[in-house]
Amino acid sequence: MHLIIAEKNLSAARIAQILAGRERVAQKKDGPISVYTFGATAVVGLKGHVVEVDFVEGYADWRSEERTPRSLIEAPTTKVPTEKKIISTIQRLARQASDVIIATDFDTEGELIGKETFDLVRQVNRTVPILRARFSAITPQEITAAFRTPTELDFALAAAGEARQVIDLVWGASLTRFISLAAKRGGKNILSVGRVQSPTLAMIVDREKEIEEFSPQKYWLLSLTTEKAGEVFSARHEVARFDDRALAEAAKARTRPPLSVKEVKEGEKVERPPAPFDTTGFLVAAGRLGFSAPNAMRVAEDLYMNGFISYPRTDNTVYPPSLNLDGVLRTVEQTEFGEHALWVRGHRRASPTRGKKTSTDHPPIHPTGAGRREVLGDERWRIYELVVRRFLATLSPDARWSTVKVSLDAGGEPYVATGARLAEPGWRKVYPYSRSEDNLLPSLSPGETLPLKDVLLEEKETQPPPRYTQSRLIQRMEDLGLGTKSTRHEVIAKLLQRRYVEGNPLRPTLVGRAVIESLERHAATITQPDMTRTLEADMQEIKQKKQTREGVVSESRQMLHRVFDELEAHGQEIGKEIMGSTEEERTIGPCPACGGDLRIRQMGPGGQFIGCSRYPECDFNLNLPSPQWGKAVKTAEVCREHALSHVRLVRKGARPWDIGCPLCSHISSNREALLLVPHINDDILGRLAAKHIYTVTDLSRMSPESLADAAAVSAEDAKRLLAGASDVLLLLRRRSELRKFVRAHLPPKRGRSQSGITRILYSHGINDIRGLAAADPSLLTGAGMKESEAELLQQEARALCGDRALREAGIPAASLKRYREASIAKPEDFCFLHPAYLSTRTGLSLETVYRHVEMVCKTMGVKPPARISKAALEEGRGALLAIPGMDEKLLEKLYRAGVVTPHALRTAEAPALAAATGIPVETVRQLMAAASRGERHNRSAGKG
Ligand SMILES: [Zn+2]
Ligand SMILES: [Zn+2]
Question: Which pLDDT belongs to residue 621?
Fold first, then answer.
């Protein structure tokens, strides 16, 4: 059997399909893993890495005395399986294989995954030949060519990948541990530090500091407007920028008619099309379309795996001679860009554009398959379109602009007007992403005089450097040699995820800043790109076999030891500095009640709130939504009214929830409830807010005197307000219970909010579960429930109310359970079912049942049934069972209707009894007749 191992399941499926040609591919499941077979070939996909590098056992304890963070530098590493099922499938197949071809992605990472696979195969089969297929696109041409001439695995390339894994593990783990321990942070709040991550974060922090320290300089721009034949245009002073206001004003004063044309210079500007896409260029262009770097990469990988574009991780900006450009054009002709492709074919430039970087691994990113908008969906389509258009642009002719520069003279002051017209759009025809606005001037000739319409002096300020967008940061990382094409966007994603940075453009958070500033002070090497750049260069040399993996890893260990020399000397200071700033990170502003500091407090996983630093002297606090909605963090915005930082809830994988000023939000969310209190009005609310009374609970806790004082009302009114407040509190409690009930019993559904439903219920006066149980079902369907849902919900509500009423009537929990098991759950059952029935159904004694029935009847305001004694009941039972045709089952049904003696049976109305018991009326009549015969018999026997 030939065994082919691909990098992912999806690529395995496509490779199998392509190689099988017309043969059918069978998909067999081996546990969760799919094996694709045709003829004598099996294809299986990995999940990227199936093993990972980790320290050998014994290094897990962070607080170990002998295994300090520094000891991790020299700690031995090993490879640990992460996907055991996939490994066992691969090894099972490898035992029987006649040859193995590794078809992982064609780059360092893919080569490393290939090497890991190689080792796994060798563990179970020492002799099978293992070859490597390399391809840059999963298309029929590339795949068949790659498998026709498989080559050897590139062990040097894999060794470079292995070196990076080990170095990143050692650096990340030892530094993260050291810094987190120093700042006393554990669990989810550890402070991660990394070889590429920290210098990248430092760039963002440094940029933020530059922006803060920037002091804007004023400058002045002088321009005039004129016109010819109704066309207005403007010209700027030859001094493009005046730094001195007096000079600018003097020049303005001298600008006088006549305004004459001195010179007209026509020219041409040639604009070359952009170079082919490498990963960075692609991410920058996708960034302009609004894609974040990780998202653009994810979409591009998806397109690659499905054969629409070539491999998106590439450093190459020059099409290799082996790439069939005509073939790519033919592919594009089959898409909706067909006309563009035909135009390009007719106007093709002599040779395609080329960028500065050539590498041999992959071609620049280009289309490999014909995509259709309906098939790809919006997001994938926009990325596909970008790649197609870029490819077309690189083969298109230059764009040509006709330019004109006109020199003017106004009373001796020199002015210049420039114009440009796109004469030949060239590549801009197929690549409409960058702006190309014409700036037309009317035709002018030297010596001509023009009217001077206006002279304008504008004051401007120099601007600070902009924050990094994700794509600009990726470019900068590339310039500095930080990370690789495949890791840069992941590093940024990690910084966001660790909450070191936020937003786009990227801003550092307080923690991010605290960590970098402390490291810059005490161990600057970690934050500077030099060392990491050296290591990246070393890894390139491993690929070229100029250095060995062991050599580079050991060099990196030496570097790290030097870093620890710096760190350990300042461990305490680093810890203090970071802790100090992170305290600040939680402080959101002054406490309105006492002027202390309000801080965000997290109490384990269960809760978070905002409390005063002077607790317990000051107990002012604000609620926050439970952490399941996200962890509360402060943002840069500050409330003007309360001087409190805005608060945001952040949760992994979810859009952040902005709460805004927590006090404003507290006030507005409680306002509605306060307004439910009778006789309250905005004036009173304002006066209460001034005393930090924001909620009904706050209000209800006041004494009548202090309320009269605070709200400026009479003692009488204060009492009335307090009574109203306690009613509203009760109402709120009932409503909150109703809300929880609805949330628990009504499944969530798209386009329907549960709080919206409860709001409608409130508006109909349904404020608690009892109200819900008794509500007209049409109100519920009107609130957005389906009929079946409303019915179920009301059933649940009735059951809960019944249960509650029975408990309130005083029935003990143990008995209640017995009743419930016998399906006797409603208070009405107690009033209208005969106690004898209740007793036989539950096994509770008649005496007990009577007591319960009387308790329930009392709360229901119903007259309890007359008691009959146990002896009388026993006697009746015996007599009833003696009636021919009677049995236990029929007896229970009769009990249900309150028929406990033959007398009651004889005197009943047959149809009514049949209805009440569910016994067919015929049977009832027979039983009644039999009972009467028995009575007569008894009586005659008594007479005799
Ligand atoms: Zn306080
Ligand atoms: Zn506020």
Answer: 86
